[in-house]
C-alpha cells in the first residue's frame, strides 16, 4: 500500500524509488488498475463478440500502461503543491490515474484526528448530558472548534 501511495505523490515519486527498476515500480500500480473493460465481457456464448471485447480490453490495458509511463516520465511537481490538488489539475491528462490517486490519497494516514474527535464528543456527551439531541451535540462541537480557530 505504501508503495502505491508514494507513487501517487508527484513531489516524491522519483525520490522514493531511486534504487528500483521501472518494472518493480510500475508492476504494483498495474496490478491495481481498474479493469472496467473486463466487467463488460458478454456472458453469452457469442465467440465473435467475445473476441472483439477481449481485444478492446487489451487496447485499454495498453492505454493504461501508456498513461502510467507518461506520468512516471513527467517531471516531479514542486514541493509546495498538495498531491490531491495536482491530480485534480492533471485529471484530463491522466484520467484513470487521477481517479486512482484520489482514492488512495484520500485515505487518512493515521486515526489520531478521528480519535481526538471522539474524545471531544465524549466530553460533550457525558453521563450527565447523555440526552442531548444529535443536532445540539453537533452544534456544541462546531462552536467549540470555531472558538478555538477564532472564527466569528
From TrEMBL:
One of its GO terms (molecular function) is protein dimerization activity. It holds the Pfam family Dimer_Tnp_hAT. Residues 78-147 form the HAT C-terminal dimerisation domain. It comes from the Eukaryota. This is HAT C-terminal dimerisation domain-containing protein. The lineage of its organism: Eukaryota, Fungi, Fungi incertae sedis, Mucoromycota, Glomeromycotina.
Amino acid at each position: 500500500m505504501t508503495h502505491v501511495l508514494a507513487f501517487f505523490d508527484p513531489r516524491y515519486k522519483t525520490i522514493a524509488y531511486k534504487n528500483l527498476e521501472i518494472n518493480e515500480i510500475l508492476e504494483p500500480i498495474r496490478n491495481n488498475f481498474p479493469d472496467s473493460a473486463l466487467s463488460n465481457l458478454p456472458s453469452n456464448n457469442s465467440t465473435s463478440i467475445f473476441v472483439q471485447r477481449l481485444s478492446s480490453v487489451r487496447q485499454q490495458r495498453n492505454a493504461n500502461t501508456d498513461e502510467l509511463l507518461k506520468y512516471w516520465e513527467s517531471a516531479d511537481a514542486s514541493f509546495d503543491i498538495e498531491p490531491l490538488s495536482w491530480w485534480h489539475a492533471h485529471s484530463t491528462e491522466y484520467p484513470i490515474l487521477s481517479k486512482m490517486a484520489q482514492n488512495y490519497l484520500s485515505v487518512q494516514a493515521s486515526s489520531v484526528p478521528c480519535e481526538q474527535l471522539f474524545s471531544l464528543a465524549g466530553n460533550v456527551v457525558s453521563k450527565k448530558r447523555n440526552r442531548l439531541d444529535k443536532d445540539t451535540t453537533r452544534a456544541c462541537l462546531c462552536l467549540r472548534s470555531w472558538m478555538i480557530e477564532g472564527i466569528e
